[in-house]
């Protein structure tokens, strides 16, 4: 089995028609690539959209990245593809945003340290200093950026300027960062900001979902990881999970159970993103 550090992955979406898989497979074959994983999906057998993820070994492939882009372009134009190419040896650089709650942060750091999450963590950014001691154990830079509601846009612009000038980042993970991101921030990182919402969306959007779930007497609670868009808690969903509860559970019990689900779902969403397994379709995702 090939290790992830030696794969090239193509992500493709285009109008569905015969010949797409054959053309892509032949392109890889003629340049001596060995396909390791291939998956595809169509939204409709008649005039729908076709999605494909194919990974092949880099060591035998004869084209360098720039040559691959030039050589594949005629195929992409023929089938009207939206496509991208990803090299697994080029790890994504992440900034983790946190506030006061530590469960998602500590879980991500543990998975990163153990090698489960193939990312480079550039920094931790927080609107509080409460969790700085945790990041010191991992020797990750921690930056405190206070945010005030009345001038939140300006405060967040300072964070944007910092990221643009001081830290290389292509993924932002909101690990229970309890701030609404302003439009300029979201637009700076389209489909590159992953948030964990402590509810099984679309139920109980916004704040205090566990209290609202308790009031409704729900029998399951959950968590949702999604990309951040202009609409609060309405971005494309990457991963979700639920856990059962009963009438005996208090609000505190729901919160305890919810924390377990939150960290699992967020870690799964980050893994899917960094392994280039997610394609956008309208306001949904195709997850391979």
Please summarize what this structure is.
The chain has eight helices and 13 strands.
What does this protein structure show overall?
The chain is an alpha/beta fold. Helix content is about 35%, strand content about 30%. It is built from eight helices and 13 strands. It has helices at about 20-30, 65-80, 105-115, 130-135, 150-165, 185-190, 210-215, 250-275, and strands at about 5-15, 35-40, 50-55, 80-85, 90-100, 120-125, 140-145, 170-175, 195, 220-225, 235-245, 280, 285. The strands form three sheets. It has a seven-stranded mixed β-sheet. The longest helix is centred in the last third of the chain and has 24 residues, at about 250-275. The protein is globular. The mean pLDDT is about 90.
Question: Which range does the strand content fall in?
Answer: 25-35%
- Helix/strand order, N-terminal first: EHEEHEEHEHEHEHEHEEHEE
Number of strands: 13
The count of helical stretches stands at 8
Low-confidence regions: none
